[in-house]
Amino acid sequence: MYNIGYDIGSSSVKAAIIEVKTGKQIAVTHEPEGEMGMISPENSWAEQDPELWWKLVCLATKKLLKQTGIDSKKINGIGIAYQMHGLVVVDRNGAPLRNAIIWCDSRAVAIGNEAFKALGTKKCKEHLLNSPANFTASKLKWVRDNEPEVYDKVHKYMLPGDYIAYKFSGDITTTVNGLSEGTLWDYKTHKPANWLLDFYDIDVSMTPDVVDNFTLQGVVNQQAAMDSGLQPGTSIMYRAGDQPNNALALNVMKPGEVAATGGTSGVVYALTDTMHTNELERINNFAHVNYTQETPVIGKLLCINGAGIQYRWMKNNTGAESYNHMNQLASAEPVGSNGLTIMPFGNGTERMLGNTNVGGRMLNLNLNKHTNGTVYRATLEGIAFSFIYGMKFIKNDNTPLHVIRAGNDNLFRSEVFSNTIASLIGQEIEIYNTTGAVGAARAASISKYDLSAFGDSISNNDYVSSYTPQKNATAYAEAYSKWEQQLEVILKNNN
User: Fold this and answer.
1) Cα gap 173→481, rounded to integer Å
2) DSSP assignment letter at 230
3) Domain co-membership, 186 together with 306
4) pTM for the complete prediction?
5) b/e for 268-280, b at 16 or more Cβ within 10 A?
6) What is the mean pLDDT of the chain?
7) Which residue range is the domain that position 212 belongs to?
8) Burial of 22 (0-12, 13-18, 19+ CB in 10 A)
9) How many angstroms separate the CA atoms of 250 and 355, rounded?
10) Taking the CB of residue 104, how many other CB atoms lie within 10 A of it?
11) What is the distance between the alpha carbons of residues 28 and 13, in angstroms, rounded to a whole number?
12) pLDDT band at 373 (very low <50, low <70, confident <90, very high)
């Protein structure tokens, strides 16, 4: 028997089939072949058509079944991961009333900031573990205020993964960790945060029923079976946002464990069992996939906008033949890049820098001694240093970092990048060859938070290698100290 998993991203829909008994990856694909587009009616807005997500899910499913020759009758369960913080609103017939407002849309920033000020730090800290910020609740408030003709027809709001589960089953439901990522979950009362919806003057009946992450959430109906090629009655067994799901895919499930991602943006997702935070604006706190009221597990999420996009920019604008060649040239340069410093913050406002936009910067360039290799190393070091800079906010928020795991993709393929982080934090970084879609597929076999065999499946199938801290990390520490000092000067001058 097999499971199928989906990862509904903003650039593509990924899908994977795994063997239930062993957890082995059978096949992975994505749709479309290029990148999914975004709709931007205004500056800083970002929307997508949720019906397009469903179309791509169906195309990817049929492609996998055809490629593998697996009979759809042998698909035992479905797991769904998805881009976080999005908003889908539907009418009583389940039809979308507008495009989805997705995670990188910033139209509701002012709404969330005003709510945080009015509700107060104490209320938000104790009940939401976050500021309302630019999350799903604030986006729904924006629709209410700016599109009353749409709001008046809203039957339910959903997260992107909720919508895909609905398209499969016809059932409109959500999860605790889904509501938490929209700042719609009250940790203190263990109920939806109706008081926040009341504050926003939003009808609380719009909140879907809540189901567990690891349970039978619905079954594929006749229409979805015809659309996707799966069998009617196939069980939907799991649903989670992409960052909690990526952590699950890396077997990051216990307090002290950390999942790191080095893609276009960088993410550090660290687990704690402490229901307390002093950081409401630089980092976010979400219910992890195995969160329960009795055993709370919270994921502290640090997002760094300027990460892999900086290295990609260097590749595209220096004539580099490949990332592997760039990494080789960078490895030949000394730690500290002969004094060259890169600030990799050219992808917009950085939350961890107090919502400051400092831009990408190159400092201390010496035209007589610095080469492309120096620039590549300084770029990798600058991105790694930004990870270290952000991690201090997580550490200072009652969260020790014991185990760090990352996927075998993008930045973590670079020895310079991975060794820099490992040496500065004094922790080994374990690398695994897995994806969010594979994690979601495996999670569809987890029964009611029984995680005993899940970690073994990941270790047996996905482990690639580890980066251990260098015995003498003095050069790394000195280079980071200089980088941090220069960043502080920039931040001071920006204020």
Assistant:
1) 48
2) P
3) no
4) 0.93
5) bbbbbeeeebebb
6) 94
7) 2-245
8) exposed
9) 29
10) 17
11) 11
12) very high
